[in-house]
Amino acid sequence: MGVKVTIVHERFTEFTGSEQVVEQLAAIYPDAPIWAPVGNLDVVPAELRDRVHVTRLSALLRGGAGGYAHLLPALPVAMRRLPVGTPDVVLASHHAFASQVTYATTAPVVAYVHSPARWVWDPAMRSGEIGGAVGEAALAAFAAAFRPADVRAARRLTRIVANSTAVAERVRDWWGRDDAVVVPPPVDVDKYSPDPSVPREDFFLMAGRLVPYKNPQLAIRAAQAAGKRLVICGDGRAAEDCRRIAGPDVELLGRVDDATQQDLMRRCAALLMPGVEDFGIVPVEAQATGAPVIAVRAGGALDYVEPGRTGEFVAADAADPDAAWAQALTEFRPGDYDPAAIRRHAERFSPASFRAAMAEAVASAVR
């Protein structure tokens, strides 16, 4: 008889990288129910919808799918009370509160940690929050109150699987656990593929949500200082500021479909990643098309950017980040990189590799 698993996720208010992880976890354990404190089932793929369960807190979401910030104080309590049943093991997808599920079960809990909540531990992650200074102060107060509970729950976890080397270091520094193993998240490297018939063009690309920690304004300023064309696809609360500072050589496309994004990745000189990501699925998708990546030397990029082979780094501690990024764009030569080698590198992050590693992590927790 196979192991009986319950999968727990933070929230289903959108379907992006962490939800794609849950999708792969669900493929490993096709009979596992999936629980979250809040969610809008409309964002869940049809094949998973019957397996996803949310609590009554979901009725308090604002704006249909996504407004959950006002529920933050309630979410840790809701996670501790999730009716996860009597599984052999709980598999939690964690980026803020999921570790609190250790109080809802006596079963071993394996946490796939996208990151300990950066806004809880890193004051810089609370800047630019909705509500201005008042919003930042409220979030800071909540973070300070929550940190002890965050550490206590982390100590109760049976296994910690970090999605990058950088996240494993945060687990050590913030939670005091030095036993995290690293399993990169699944990237659909078959969906994003090279097309040797499409030549690289003289523009840089930035793709994904336009939010403060991703630093899209830095990419814009650097491209303009270097006299380089920049294309940005994505939307978010930093979009208005991006439009305000963008010059004629910056093209903001907003949200685009997958086919358009893949086409841009196949044609760009390189994908830019000026923000510190926990891992960063979009850059690996770009590498799956053969595109090199220029990234800040920090976070998840340390696991997949190899200077001179799959991309280049810009120093994280540069005295003048705008100048450092402008110099990197000016000096970048797309012809120095082998798209086929970049593609082979990206294949290491396939969903099959992820599923095999996670199945072993769960099995080790119940032996």
Your description of this structure?
The radius of gyration is 20 Å and the shape is globular. The chain is 36% helix and 16% strand. It contains 13 helices and 15 strands. The longest helix is centred in the middle third of the chain and has 25 residues, at 132-156. It folds into two domains: 5-186 and 350-366, Glycogen Phosphorylase B (Rossmann fold, 3-Layer(aba) Sandwich), CATH 3.40.50; 204-348, Rossmann fold (3-Layer(aba) Sandwich), CATH 3.40.50.2000. β13 (270-273), α10 and β14 form a beta-alpha-beta unit. α7 crosses α11 (321-331).
How would the global form be characterised?
A: globular
Total strands: the figure is 15
Strand and helix order: EEHEEHEHEEHHEHEEHEHEHEHEEHHH
Strand order of the largest sheet: 5-3-1-6-7-8-9
**CATH class designation of the largest domain:** Alpha Beta
Provide the structure class: alpha/beta
- Indicate the percent of residues in helices: 25-40%
Give the number of helices: 13
Task: Give the name of the CATH superfamily of the largest domain.
Answer: Glycogen Phosphorylase B
- Terminal Cα separation, in Å? 14 Å
The CATH topology of the largest domain comes to Rossmann fold
Give the second-level CATH assignment, the architecture of the largest domain. 3-Layer(aba) Sandwich
Q: Mean of the pLDDT scores?
A: 94
Radius of gyration: 20 Å
Q: How many structural domains does the protein architecture include?
A: 2
Tell me the major beta sheet: 7 strands, parallel
Low-pLDDT runs of 5+ residues are none
Q: Strand-residue fraction?
A: 15-25%
